[in-house]
Every structure is written in C-alpha cells, then in structure tokens.
Amino acid sequence: MILDIDNWKAQIRKGYLDLCILLLIQAKERLYGFDILDHLKDLDLPVKEGTLYPLLNRMTNDGLLTSVWETDKSTHPRKFYSLTKVGKKTLQDMQAEFGKLAEVYKKLNRLEEK
Amino acid sequence: MSVPKILEEYLSKLEKTLGPISVSEKAEIITEIKSHVMEAMDREGAKDAGSILASLGEPEQVANRYLLERGLKPQKPPKHPILKWVTVGFLGTVGLVMVFVLILLWKFTPIIIRVDEQNDRVIILGGLIDVNGSADSVKVGSIHVSDRNNGFVGSMPFDPAQIKSLEITFINAKIELANSNEKKFEWDCSGSKPDNFITQGKDRVKFSLSEGHQSKCAFKIPAGSSVSVGGVNGKVYIDKPHFALSIRMDNGKVDFSPDPVNKYKFVNSVVHGKMDSFDSSDVKDAINISIAIKNGKILKN
C-alpha cells in the first residue's frame, strides 16, 4: 500500500506545530491569534485559523500559555498570548527532544549519502 | 464596526455545537473567533465576512477541533445539505407509505369492523361488540341486551318553550325516539333501572343510561324540542320526528324514518360504514337533524 502522505504530514506536523507556536510566541513575547497566523504564513508554515485557535485554547488549558484581552489600538478586543513558566520549561524540553530527533535524522541522511 | 448577521449566526451555531465545554469557556472561544473575523475584515476591508467564515470552516468542524484538542468526543459531522434533504425526503416517504398501509389495514380488516348488510349487523373487533338488527340485540363482550327484560316506565312534564335541551346518553343500548302528543317527555325502558337516570336543570333535562345498565328504551318527545343523543354502542330508531335531533355515536346503527309532512335539514356522517342519502332541505323551518357515527351505518326507512 502506498503511504498516505497527507496523513503522515498531518501526524508529523501535530507535535511540530506545538513546538513552533511556542517558539514563536516566546520569540515575540506576546502575540494574538491573527499575528500568529501571519507569522506562520511568512515562515512558510501556513496553519488554518480553524486549527490554530483550538490549539491555542488547548495549550492555555494545559497551562503552557496565558492570555489577556486588550482593547486599545483596535476597534475590537484582541487576545494576547504569552508563555507561562511551565510553558517555557516545556518548550525547553520540546527543543531538546526535537534537537535529538533532528540529529538522528541528520546522521541517517549522511549514512545514506555515503 | 457593526457585527454582520452572518457572523452572529455562525457564532451562535458554534456555541451550540461546543457541547460539553463550560459556559465561560464557550464565551471565551466565541469572543476570540469573533475578534479574528473582525480583525480580518479590518485588515482586508474588501473581504466580506462570508469568505472569512468560509476559510474558518463550518462551525461544527471548528467546534469539533476544540473538542478533539480537549480529548472530548466530537459531535456528529455535519451532514451535507443535500444528504440532509435526501434523508428528510426518504423518511417522509416511508412515513406516508406507512400511513397508507395503516389506512388500508383499517379499511379492509374485517376483524376491526364488519358491517353485514344482509343480516343487519355491525360487528366490531371480531365480535366483541355486536349490534344485531334482526335479533334486536346489542352485545358487548359477555353482556347481552335484548328486548325481554324487566323495565321502568315514566314521564315528566316537558315544555319545549322552556326546556332548551334534552340530552340522552347511553352505553350499550337500543333507543327509539318518537313524537309525544302532549307536552310530556315519556320513557319506557327495559333492563334494570339506573340510579339518578334523570336530572333536571333550569332549562335542560338529562337522561342517562349509564354503563352496566344495558337497556332498551322507547322515548316520546314533544314536538319542537331539541334533543341530543350521545352514546357508545347502540342502535337508534327515529320515527317521524317533529323535534330537532343531534346524535353522536361511536358504534352502531341509526334508523331514520322521515315524516313526509316535514322538511328536514340533514348533516350526517359515518366514518367507517355506510349511510343512506336523505332529502335535505334548506328552508327556514326545516328541522335540524345531525347524525354522526364513527363505525356503523345510517339507514332511511
């Protein structure tokens, strides 16, 4: 059977997306949903809004993110997300794990080339 | 900026499909999605709310993502509109067919009701109720009412000008209605005498042959009266009435002999069974006759 590539992509992206979003918010300190979508699009990692908001909602519930509503500078309130202490710690763990995986991947790639 | 109607509808749908999530969290989610759409409209002024909502996805899909992210069971995926209508259409057709089948069963199953023309009988529920014209009897289960019984006879003064209505009610009886030559209401009944069978109000008289007192009664009624008869199982004979009459009966037979000197205005109906046609007149002084029977027949003598 031919591997369903879209399914594989969706699976690999799931955890990867969490990591990227946490990294992005940490880098910008605080961001609201629309900004996150824009940044990810610029990074060539487009995410559907219908995917992002539930994801942010879950990470907030899990205590990785904290949010605050702000109304100034805009006609409507915006919900700004930033990392909690737990979020920062979790992000470090994630980065370490992903770094390991990337190393393995690199090694395997080199093996193939030889 | 005002909130477009389409967005309001989208948000209320989303809120409904968020199911088990707590009210305050639902509000939070709704506000965020609303904020997103407003932001998108602000940024890309030309873009209308409809296309922004379209790229968000169906509210059910979005709600399901929220539920899935929380490890909750997603709601049923939204049916495609066409599929929905096909389902509605299919179920509707099945329903209609079933109604027709039931009507046909009802009409053609002799167990439920059988009107036997030759032997002058109406048999309901396979003989549980049996109104037998030729044998002059009404039978319900094991109870049998026939002509031969002890009875009770009586009369009371009755001025149709004063008494607006005479009401006769019965369960399982044979009733004859004829004219009285005096201003008197008379009865001649067989069967046992019920307690308080007659009650008189200021302008109405009620005669009830209640259940358990299956009888045969012959009544004489003064001309110009207004009589209403209501009963369940029975047989009613009406002989050349000079009084207005309204009969409501569930199961049984009505025999009506019109008086040729009178004009009558008939309103008759039989749900299951048959009825003869009567000459109905619309003249002003025509006597109103209304007979409604569920199962049985109305005959002209």
Tell me what you see in this structure.
The complex is a heterodimer of chains A (114) and B (301). Chain A is built from 4 helices and 3 strands. Chain A is α+β, with helices and mostly antiparallel strands. Helix content of chain A is 67%, strand content 12%. Chain A has a 3-stranded antiparallel β-sheet. Chain A has helices at 5-28, 33-42, 49-61, 85-113; strands at residues 31-32, 65-70, 78-83. The two termini of chain A are 29 Å apart. In chain B, strand 2 (121-124) and strand 3 form a beta hairpin. The radius of gyration of chain B is 34 Å and the shape is elongated. The model of chain B has no long low-confidence stretch (mean pLDDT 83). Chain B has helices spanning 5-17, 23-43, 49-56, 59-69, 81-108; strands at residues 113-116, 121-124, 129-132, 137-140, 143-145, 151-157, 165-170, 173-180, 184-190, 198-200, 204-209, 215-222, 226-239, 244-257, 264-275, 287-300. In chain B, strands 6, 7, 8, 9, 10, 11, 12, 13, 14, 15 and 16 form an 11-stranded mixed β-sheet that branches. Chain B is α/β, with parallel strands linked by helices and 301 residues long. The A-B interface holds A 32-34, 48-51, 53-55, 57-58, 61, 69, 74-79 and B 1, 28-29, 31-36, 38-40, 42-43, 55-57, 61-62, 65-66, 68-70.
Tally of strands of chain A: 3
How many DSSP-defined strands of chain B? 16
**Secondary-structure element pattern of chain B, one letter each:** HHHHHEEEEEEEEEEEEEEEE
Helix amount of chain B, in percent? 25-40%
Cα shape of chain A: globular
Please write the string of helix (H) and strand (E) elements of chain A. Answer: HEHHEEH
Distance between the termini of chain A: 29 Å
Q: Give a short account of the largest sheet of chain A.
A: 3 strands, antiparallel
What is the residue-mean pLDDT of chain B, rounded to a whole number?
A: 83
Helix content of chain A: 55-70%
Oligomer: heterodimer
Average pLDDT for all residues of chain A: 89
Indicate the structural class of chain B. Answer: alpha/beta
Unreliable spans of chain A are none
- Evaluate the radius of gyration of chain B: 34 Å
In percent terms, what proportion of residues of chain B is strand? 35-45%
